[in-house]
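Study this fold:
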Amino acid sequence: MVDISKITNKEASRFIKAFLADREINCEFYSRIPEDKLDFKMVDTPERKSDSPRESLTHQISKQRASFAGSNFQRNGANALGAGTKMGAQEGLMDQVKLF
């Protein structure tokens, strides 16, 4: 893991600290959900829908990928995820989401 004490850029340091704190919260939360409940939806009616825990985690991963790729694109002028990647797309991630 990165030694955050060596990060001199204040914005980068603030970002990584927040990212790691959020990741720790997610690890604790998702470790408490039994695997057979990862696809459970508390609300699933025609009028109102909710995400399952797996869908929520997939959404977070998708947004983080987009954020990281966007910052890398701005810094390097290239897409970190490769040409043709759909930024923010969740297709394919649902089957890959595993607990930490």
Summary: Residues 77-100 have pLDDT under 50 and may be disordered.
